[in-house]
Every structure is written in structure tokens, then in C-alpha cells.
Amino acid sequence: MIALHLLSLLSLFGLACSLPHNPATFKRTTSGCGAPSPWAFDSTGHATITLSDRSFLVHIPANYQANTTHAVVFSFHGYGKNSQNQELITGLSEKGLLLNKKGIIAVYPLGVVGIGRDDGDPPGPAWQGAPYAQPDVDDVAFTKDVVASVSSNLCVDSQRIYASGKSNGGGFTNLLACDSTTSSLFAAFAPVSAALYADTHPLTGCTPSGSVPLINFHGLSDTVIRFGGQLADKEGDTAYALPNITIYRQDWALQDGCTTTVSSSLTHPFTDTTLKEWDCSATDTRAVVRGYTVTGLGHSWPGTLGLDGGVTTFNATTAAILPFFDAHILP
């Protein structure tokens, strides 16, 4: 009896010693770890994957290892664009980018061709939440399927999966932050020059599972998605109403549990750029909202090379988004 008791104590001691000392740094592996990926990547680390009748582009870092967990960054293109364009303007597949000191896996899903806008242009790929998207397409479900597919075919740190997007893709990124299931699937969100139609507002039908770390960029010279918002488009269609970006950021602060819309700090980290931060992390470490306002920037992903039309003194991906992502993991 004494021997059994000692054995039990030793077993418990061994279990305790095997647990991580800091649960916040413990990396949750996925079923894609430990074996070579069945996906056929080309010499540049790219593969286009078909999932049912949809597709997504994946890039793995040059130092990808099947027995090491890697963070994943999703990036959703703007209306009428595609996966390759989103890869180009964000630079998320560039060599040397790191999260948690390891190369990142970048995923660029492709939207379904929408119903078109009332501007007369041919319809292009769109994302759920926009008035020009196909109403019967469930992009949230598609995104969850892509996360599952990537996780089962690559070695992923499931605590470090992130979402970003531009314009219509930025609005969809915001919708993912508002969804009760995907808000707990992604560790942080980065909507850029986001088209925030009614179905993607943080205080309208927004039901995240908890506080959401969110970083946002918008140019004051954006004439496509105006910083000050609009009640309707030029044809008077109220389905195209957009919020004032300052109010949008304040609403996220309230959604995250902040008791005031007044920002915690106001700084100027880059030339012609103002950063307001709402940090309510005293009681919840995930309750952080950052808003970058860029003077002179139009409807663009901020970058020094002008790959998206506008030139800024900083690269949003490397100077702000990835450091923000690196600081936030799922509990």
C-alpha cells in the first residue's frame, strides 16, 4: 500500500515536472507536425491549394521544419484583387520575416467573384460582409476550413495564427474578429484601409468570444474608403455606408472592455503618422487597440516601395503589424 502511494506521488511529480513553467509560452502543435507536408511546394516555397471549389496560396519560409511549430499569417485581398496581389503589397512572403523567432507561414485565400458594384465595372473576387459579395457564400466557414487544412498539412503553432487584410479584405478581417468562433481561432487582427460595411462593425452584431487585439491603418487621403466615413455611396445606396475611422477604433476599445473612448496614448512613431492606442490590458492582456492614421496616404497598404500605390516612410508589415502579432498569442 505504501509502495503504491509512493508510486502515485512520483507519477504526479513527474507530470508536474513535464508541464511548461510558463503556460503562456507553451506552443500547441497541430497534426501537421512531425512529417513532410503532402503539399507540393515549388522552389520559391509556394503552393496553390484547392479546397472543395475554392483555393488559397501558401508560402512557407526557407527554414521551414516539419518538427518545429510556425506562426501563420492569413492575409485577405481587396475587392477585385487576388492572392498574388495581396502577397505583393504586404510583403508577408519576404525572406527573413519572423514570429516567435521562427519563419512564418503566409496564407492568401482567394475570394469568390461577387455580384458587382453599382459603378458598372465587371464583378471581381469579394469577401463576406460587403454589399457586392455573393450573399450565399460563407467565407467565415471557408476560412475555418483553410485554418484546419493548413494545420493538418503543416507544422503550425495554433496559438499564433493571425488575420490581416486590405480594403474589402480588411473589412472581412474585422468580421472575423467579431465572429464568436474565429475570434478565438486567430490571436490578433490587422485590418488595413478597411471597407467596414454595416455587417462588420464592432458594436453592431459583433460577438467575439473575448477581448480582441486589433491594429488598424488608414490614410487621411483615402478617397475609396474615406477616413471620415459616409452615409451612402455617390448613387445614394446606404448599403455602402461606412463609419468614421476614429469612431470605429473607439468602438473596438469599448468592445474590448475599455471604460472610455479616450485613447491611452498618442504618439508619432513615423513621419506623417499618428498612433493612438487604447490599452485596457490591466485586467485583460488582450484588450489592446492600435490605430495608425497616415497623412497623405490614399487607399494603400503602407510601405516604402509604393507597391500598393502610396509611399510611406515605414513598412506597416515589418514595422508595426508583425511586432504587434508577436506580442499577442491565444491563451
From TrEMBL:
<keyword id="KW-0732">Signal</keyword>
<dbReference type="GO" id="GO:0005576">
    <property type="term" value="C:extracellular region"/>
</dbReference>
<keyword id="KW-0378">Hydrolase</keyword>
<keyword id="KW-0858">Xylan degradation</keyword>
<feature type="signal peptide">
    <location>
        <begin position="1"/>
        <end position="18"/>
    </location>
</feature>
<dbReference type="GO" id="GO:0045493">
    <property type="term" value="P:xylan catabolic process"/>
</dbReference>
<dbReference type="GO" id="GO:0030600">
    <property type="term" value="F:feruloyl esterase activity"/>
</dbReference>
<keyword id="KW-0624">Polysaccharide degradation</keyword>
<protein>
    <recommendedName>
        <fullName>feruloyl esterase</fullName>
        <ecNumber>3.1.1.73</ecNumber>
    </recommendedName>
</protein>
<dbReference type="InterPro" id="IPR029058">
    <property type="entry name" value="AB_hydrolase_fold"/>
</dbReference>
<keyword id="KW-0119">Carbohydrate metabolism</keyword>
<dbReference type="InterPro" id="IPR043595">
    <property type="entry name" value="FaeB/C/D"/>
</dbReference>
<keyword id="KW-0964">Secreted</keyword>
